Amino acid sequence: MNTSPFRTVLSLSLCWLLLLIAGRSNAQQADLVISGKVTRTENGRPVRQASVSIVRKGVGTATNTAGKFVLIIPAANLHDTLKISCIGYKPQQFAISSLKQGTDLNVQLEKNSTELQEVTITYYDAAKIIKKAIARIGDNYINHPHILRGFYRMYTYADQDPLQLSEAVFDVYNFGYADTRADLFRLIKARNEKNDRDFASLEFGQRPNSIFEEDIVNHLHACGFLNSQGLNNHQFEVTGITDVNGYKAYVIEFKEKPGADGATFRGKMYIDTKTDAFIYFDFGLSPTALENGIASFAQRSLVRTGNVRIDPLFNHAEVKYQEVGNKWVLASVEGDDSLAVKNPDTDSGYVAHVKFNYQITAVDTTEKESFNSKIGRNDNINAYKSNGDEKFWKDYNILLSDYDAEDVFKKLKAIDKGGKAKTSP
């Protein structure tokens, strides 16, 4: 059957028109903003630090202490899958296409009944598992240039008084987990307020170097229990096999060897049984290190001191990794420190509590040229404060705070103006 030239042109024109409409439709698609709360099935209590992420895409956030979250899903990911998971619970998944703008998800996570299996200790050699995991870093983790978009919040308070609150959105350029070239840092936006009435002698501030070192796997030399000295100073033991967000993992407990010097730690690490990848660290300074005043994360973040004495009282950190594509990369860092602050001249003091959260909110695995940074590797990020209002973070994925952050910023400003505002952490 012959087709006229007119019909052929018309058919082609219709095809191009449909493609154009489809292209415009896709171009007009907006990012999807959803929120929700994650609770336990057994008692309805909130689940804190539950991961809320797009499966294998690196876009995500986490729940706060109340189990709440807000997530901006890019238009490019509207046909992907949303995963909500937490260690010790069965993960849940949702088709993003089934969610609508402004969706408020109420998710109940069921405790994983097979959370922990005892293992025969003599069968598993912790040292060999760790050695293999280190050797496989180049295979298990993203090993080409990529960019991690991050958000961090550091809140310091004493009793009912806020002392300092800092937040920032930034990019980290990583050349690859097996590449020895130093990471690069680019600040996007930041804000910081400090209570100079009660906290004049001290200031906590992140630096690009300290941000980089939170990624334990990419900076083993800075890890006090996985660098060469740390491996010698600690004893390791496989105590079980457990489920970590759907991955079967070895549980390796560690603590300081008797008589070990320097910074020593106690905690657990979780290594994927299938790939031998480090996927989760849960640890803190050992009692001996605390007694000896060994620097904690918070102390390493001190950027200015007056005539004061600082003693660590408590230290705890969690570092989690996520799978993007078929490779692993940093997901989040959480720090919790308490420090005794005392002024020898006045014999006055207080206990400063420092809460730190660092969340990877997006991962760009497309190879790009490295970017330049105007901030030195040891510069205080707090010095680069941006102007902002209550909609300061409206275009960025962040972690919801456990308190009214905007109210804390206002009260810190009021205190410095002579007010007597108080707040609860």
Number of strands: 20
Structural domains: how many: 2
Count of alpha/pi helices: 8
Q: Point out poorly predicted stretches.
A: 1-27, 421-425
Strand order of the largest sheet: 8-13-14-15-16-18-19-20-9-10-11
Rg to the nearest angstrom?
A: 24 Å
Shape: globular
Report how far the terminal alpha carbons are from each other: 79 Å
The helix-strand sequence is HEEEEEEEEHHEEEEHHEEEEHHEEEEH
Structural class: alpha+beta
Mean pLDDT: 88
Bin the strand percentage: 35-45%
Q: State the major sheet.
A: 11 strands, antiparallel
Assembly classification:
single chain
Please give a structural write-up.
There is one protein chain. With 425 residues, the chain is of the alpha+beta class. It folds into two domains: 32-109, Sandwich (Immunoglobulin-like), CATH 2.60.40; 117-416, no CATH class. It is 17% helix and 40% strand. It contains eight helices and 20 strands. It has helices at 5-28, 126-135, 137-140, 208-213, 228-233, 287-291, 297-300, 405-416; strands spanning 32-40, 51-54, 60-62, 68-73, 81-85, 92-95, 104-109, 116-117, 146-158, 161-174, 184-194, 202-204, 234-244, 247-256, 265-272, 278-285, 302-305, 309-324, 327-343, 348-364. The strands form four sheets. An eleven-stranded antiparallel sheet has the order 8-13-14-15-16-18-19-20-9-10-11. A four-stranded antiparallel sheet has the order 3-2-5-6, with no helix packed on it. A hairpin with a 5-residue loop joins strand 2 and strand 3 (60-62). The longest helix is centred in the N-terminal third of the chain and has 24 residues, at 5-28. It is globular and about 55 Å long. The termini are far apart. Residues 1-27 and 421-425 have low confidence and may be disordered.
